[in-house]
Design goal:
The complex is a heterodimer of chains A (159) and B (687).
Chain A: H1 2-28, E1 29-34, H2 35-41, E2 50-56, E3 62-64, E4 69-75, H3 81-86, H4 90-99, E5 105-111, E6 123-130, E7 136-144, H5 152-157
Parallel strand pairs in A: 1-2, 5-7
Antiparallel strand pairs in A: 2-4, 2-6, 3-4, 4-5, 6-7
Chain B: H1 2-29, H2 33-62, H3 69-74, H4 81-86, H5 92-112, H6 122-142, E1 149-153, E2 156-160, E3 168-169, H7 185-200, H8 202-214, H9 220-251, H10 261-286, H11 290-312, H12 327-348, H13 365-397, E4 400-403, H14 405-425, H15 436-460, H16 465-496, H17 500-510, H18 512-537, E5 539-546, E6 550-553, E7 556-568, E8 573-584, E9 587-592, E10 595-599, E11 604-608, E12 610-613, E13 617-623, E14 633-642, H19 645-662, H20 667-686
Antiparallel strand pairs in B: 1-2, 1-3, 5-14, 6-7, 7-8, 8-9, 8-10, 10-11, 12-13, 13-14
Helix pairs in contact in B: 1-2, 1-6, 2-5, 2-6, 5-6, 5-7, 6-8, 7-9, 8-9, 8-11, 9-10, 9-19, 10-11, 10-13, 11-12, 13-14, 14-16, 15-16, 16-17, 16-18, 17-18, 18-19
Classes of the chains: A alpha+beta (159), B alpha+beta (687).
Chain lengths: 159, 687
């Protein structure tokens, strides 16, 4: 009898936690895609909550300070760490990506202040959705700027 | 030359820790106390050795020895000396060495204590600590050598521990410099704090394993390490808060916590550590939850290593990001091995860890503590799930799916609320047995009070349901805690004839852990006020202003006055500093000066907000535009963060609470009494 009380309580808590995790995951899951994968998905993916990474093309960066309207182009970089390694690390992979005119590119529009790290060959990780016009509307913009020896900036920041 | 000396000393300390492990095991197995003593002394030697290693590294850092890869990466000529010293933990190789150094300091402190009554633990505490330390030093020796030098060969420049054939030493003119984001007082002390917390948790784990190995599974190991656990928890908590403060001051996004995997990595051991702090009390008082405590400390240790691993491997991507290096898989193997070994030991001793009493009442203090533990574990599961979800989904669907901050907020908010409710109820419930009736009698007054406060807030401040629930819970906990203080103080005042202040002082002094704990509860509530404020009531706006134009938000008005730009060449920084006049409801309050600092050596901007902080709210202004073209206009982003100051105030009270709880008690008397009691028992048993 005594045991039952605790077992029932435990099961209730477990159930609640599973429910919380399940519904929160379902409500907030974001597909993490590369530019190529995004293109392969076709129109199904329009307006879904996405996270896309790509290498920034420096010349394409346009910023209207008056309206805080930022637009730039990103080019496909592999998403898999193993693929990045075979290309010689993230910095090298990003460098190759921006030098390769045959790779898929995507235009990004973001409203907000221009991040300090947004520059040529940076890796942009954008959260937002793909419009029907093929432009990616980012709500959040994260940037990584690896350097030749190692990814000094992010690595230092990690603790 | 000096670099080689540093590496040699590092390598010697590696050998010494290994020797310590083997000597301790040999001495224990063969019953040769001299060998155990030798292991202990070897262990004591690691601290001076690693201090020397660190000293050499710091010497090289301070004196611009850019031929060292590590020095080249984290310092530059223009950095002030104190930053060159703290650059020690600014990069991977250095921070691993920093970890080992702290570990050696802690183990030395532990081995210097009197071991008379706990001799049997000694060899195993040495083994566990030294295995951990050997792992970290080994990382430095074999994979991340901070003393590796740059050599020029035909293939180019690369770092090597030993000079390759046909090469010459390569000395860059200047270093790359520490990331400007890290040149902030908060960031200078945040990593050491976090590491102190991480490393200190190894000590209770070492004792727990020693208890499992020796079979001395009573609560002695808990009593021995209680204070260690508290200090570890203090450092870890404070490290987390400092990290938040740093993000708030430096990262320029108006927040303090982003549910980034690296943040979560530091948060997870905090969760198990906090659960552990609570549940050990049940074992001490009631002799229950023994398996659970073992499991918690094992988990905490694994999560501490996992936390270091997450920040140092290429597994996940986050703002902090990760360096790709060989050490990832090794960390993983080490965590796996230590987890398997610990759990195997726990299963081996399962029978001797039986509870001494049965838990009967759902509302008893121990049942509520257990519930508290389950809630902490639930939050842990949510965090772990969120961090691992991309990997899990990739494994099963081939598609990387991530979850962001909304996932964590949504999944953890009800759990945090439940924890707060427990914080309100548990102090009023009794050990052993409690019913709705007895509990109701104690709690109805605080509940009425909290409802009244909530009603007032509903009328005057907010109608948001989430916020009102939050404020109700906060008010409840605060009232219950004050009520508990008052009850104890009042009783003492009457029985001892002291005035109320002396009574409260003595009350706290007599039962430090309990009343220190209450102070910590109060501080958590102050922090909760700040978190609720910024999470629910934050408002923001942005705009580009010409000089003399203004922008308004909430009841603030900002008028853009001027902008100036100048170089500080010795420090290698270019400053752009805007000045805005701040008005509140038409009344002039003063000026704020948000800046953008551009660091030439690392070619990076740093956005420093202009902040005006009051208990009611923070006005947080960022200068966003830094295009020289638009010199006549400047773009600002403005946040009003209500109540956030309470978060930082709460963290100060938190420190005070821990100091109260962890302050050394006059334990000698009690120990003497207990020893006497034991002698009597033994003699009576002999009769």
């Amino acid at each position: 009898m005594q045991i039952n009380k605790f077992v029932i309580g435990g099961i209730l808590i477990l159930g609640a936690v599973v429910f919380l995790i399940w519904t929160s995951t379902a409500a907030n899951a974001q597909y993490f895609l590369t530019v190529d994968e995004l293109n392969a998905k076709g129109p199904d993916i329009v307006d879904k909550n996405l996270r896309v990474s790509g290498a920034v093309i420096g010349d394409s960066i346009q910023y209207d300070a008056q309206n805080l309207a930022l637009s730039f182009e990103v080019v496909h970089v592999p998403g898999d760490t193993a693929d990045i390694e075979t290309e010689g690390g993230l910095a090298e992979a990003l460098h190759q990506a921006v030098m390769d005119p045959s790779r898929a590119r995507m235009k990004v529009i973001y409203v907000g202040p221009k991040p300090d790290l947004l520059r040529h060959e940076a890796q942009a990780i954008m959260t937002g959705h793909l419009g029907a016009d093929g432009i990616f509307y980012a709500e959040e913009l994260l940037l990584k700027c690896p350097t030749r020896y190692e990814e000094a900036v992010p690595e230092q920041a990690g603790l | 030359m000096i670099a080689n000396l540093g590496f040699s000393v590092l390598f010697i300390s590696f050998l010494v820790t290994l020797y310590s492990v083997f000597a301790a095991i040999y001495g224990e197995r063969r019953q040769v106390p001299a060998m155990v003593e030798s292991a202990r002394r070897a262990m004591l030697l690691t601290w001076p050795l690693l201090t020397l290693t660190a000293g050499i590294l710091i010497y090289l850092l301070v004196n611009n020895h850019f031929e060292l890869q590590f020095v080249y990466e984290v310092t530059s000529r223009s950095m002030p000396t104190y930053l060159k010293v703290t650059a020690w933990w600014g990069g991977q190789a250095g921070s691993l060495l920093f970890w080992s150094w702290l570990m050696s300091a802690f183990t030395s402190l532990v081995t210097l204590r009197k071991w008379d009554r706990d001799r049997e633990f000694l060899p195993w505490v040495i083994v566990v600590s030294c295995v951990t330390m050997a792992f970290f030093i080994g990382m430095n020796v074999f994979f991340e050598n901070p003393f590796a030098q740059l050599y020029q060969t035909f293939d180019g420049v690369a770092a090597h521990t030993f000079q390759p054939a046909n090469s010459i030493l390569f000395t860059p003119e200047d270093g790359r410099g520490l990331n400007p984001l890290l040149r902030h007082p908060g960031m200078v002390i945040h990593p050491p704090m976090l590491y102190l917390g991480f490393v200190a948790f190894v000590i209770p784990y070492a004792f727990a394993l020693a208890a499992l190995i020796t079979g001395r599974t009573d609560d002695r190991w808990i009593r021995l390490t209680r204070r260690w656990t508290l200090w570890a928890w203090l450092f870890l908590s404070f490290g987390l808060v400092l990290g938040g403060r740093w993000a708030y001051d430096v990262l320029g996004w108006g927040g303090y916590w982003g549910w980034d995997p690296v943040e979560i990595a530091a948060f997870m051991p905090w969760l198990t550590g906090t659960a552990f702090l609570h549940s050990v009390m049940i074992q001490e008082k009631r002799g229950m939850l023994k398996h659970w405590n073992m499991l918690l400390i094992i988990l905490t240790y694994s999560l501490v290593i996992f936390g270091t691993f997450l920040t140092r491997s290429g597994v996940l991507s986050s703002v902090h990001s990760f360096a790709q290096s060989a050490i990832g898989p090794l960390f993983f193997a080490f965590i796996g091995l230590s987890l398997i070994t610990s759990v195997a030991l726990l299963i081996h001793r399962w029978g001797s860890l039986k509870s001494e009493t049965q838990m009967t009442s759902l509302l008893s203090r121990e049942a509520l503590f257990l519930l508290n533990n389950l809630l902490f574990m639930s939050i842990l599961v949510v965090c772990f799930w969120g961090v691992m979800f991309p990997l899990i989904s990739e494994l099963f669907t081939g598609q990387k799916v991530t979850v962001g901050p909304p996932f964590y907020e949504r999944a953890t908010a009800p759990l945090f609320a439940a924890l707060m409710l427990l914080m309100g109820i548990a102090p009023l419930s009794a050990w052993g047995h409690s019913t709705v009736k007895t509990l109701g009698r104690a709690i109805w007054k605080p509940i009425i009070g909290a409802l009244a406060i909530t009603l007032v807030l509903f009328v005057t401040y907010t109608q948001k349901v989430g916020a009102l629930i939050g404020f109700f819970l906060i008010a409840l906990v605060i009232l219950v805690t004050i009520y508990e203080y008052w009850r104890g103080g009042y009783a003492r005042q009457r029985s001892q004839g002291e005035n109320i202040f002396t009574a409260l002082w003595n009350l706290t002094g007599r039962n430090r852990r309990r009343y220190g704990g209450y102070i910590i509860h109060l501080s958590m509530m102050l922090m909760a006020v700040g978190i609720l404020g910024i999470e629910i009531f934050q408002v923001e706006t942005q705009g580009t202003l010409a000089q003399g134009e203004s922008l308004s938000l909430a009841n603030y008005e900002l008028r853009y006055k001027e902008i100036a730009q100048w170089d500080d060449l010795p420090s290698g920084v270019n400053y752009r500093r805007a000045v805005v006049d701040v008005y509140q409801d038409g009344e002039y309050l003063g000026q704020l000066a948000p800046r953008i600092d551009y660091y030439y050596d690392s070619q990076q901007n740093m956005t420093i907000p202009g902040q005006r902080s009051t208990l009611k709210d923070d006005l947080y202004v960022l200068l966003v535009n830094w295009e020289p073209v638009a010199a006549t206009g400047a773009t600002f982003k403005v946040y009003v963060n209500p109540l956030v100051n309470w978060l930082w105030l709460g963290s100060l009270l938190f420190l005070a609470g821990i100091v109260v709880a962890a302050w050394p008690e006059k334990e000698t008397e009690r120990v003497a009494v207990r020893a006497k009691a034991r002698v009597q028992q033994q003699t009576s048993a002999a009769d």
